[in-house]
């Protein structure tokens, strides 16, 4: 969504692609007492793009051992490709800032020491230009007192086009779009359909006379909660008496009592003469 929104904002604008080349010459770094950096590097960065120089040893000064420098006998060149945008009727480009960061590294651990921002639209030109710069960096660590970077910045014009063209999109803008953490819902739908097919197949095989142990259930049956006893329940759910579902078993048929037998035998039937 971020890239789509940026494209909509750039509709009707012009885009120009440039190549900027930074040639590092000298780095001066003054630190507080009781601390000295080991090796330093210069990072030219914007968002997720990082263009790093090589690691160079920091050399302390003779008069002040806590004020040292890094000198490049041969300038180290770092180049980047940048797209600048402007309105159709505007004379200058929109702002685009890149940052020079000084990082110290000691035993594999990196630490940001100082930084300085530059607006590249100030150095953009349709003709080849080269500008010498002395940047005073802002300390980003309590151990840094002052930092200065000397370099030359060159600009080369590449081409011009519409802001919505694919080849004119800024690489930093594309890399700044992070992938979403939401999964694809189609994957979950496919897994549910596969489970349904498995359960239907298992049910059909069980109805054909196969062993019931081979039936596959997609979900385990829910446990049946026991019914509370009406005698032990302190808070009955309803006042209606619970009727027992157990029917009494029929008792044995009544047998004649011995007295009734005696009465019958007291009046014997006489035979007819």
Automatic annotation (TrEMBL):
Location of the region described as Disordered in the Swiss-Prot/TrEMBL record: 179-273
Ranges of Low complexity composition bias in the record: 236-248
Superkingdom of origin: Eukaryota
InterPro entries referenced in this protein's UniProt entry, alphabetically: F-actin_Monoox_Mical, NT-C2
Domain C2 NT-type, first and last residues per copy: 8-157
Pfam families per UniProt: NT-C2
Protein name: C2 NT-type domain-containing protein
Organism: Oreochromis aureus
Lineage: Eukaryota, Metazoa, Chordata, Craniata, Vertebrata
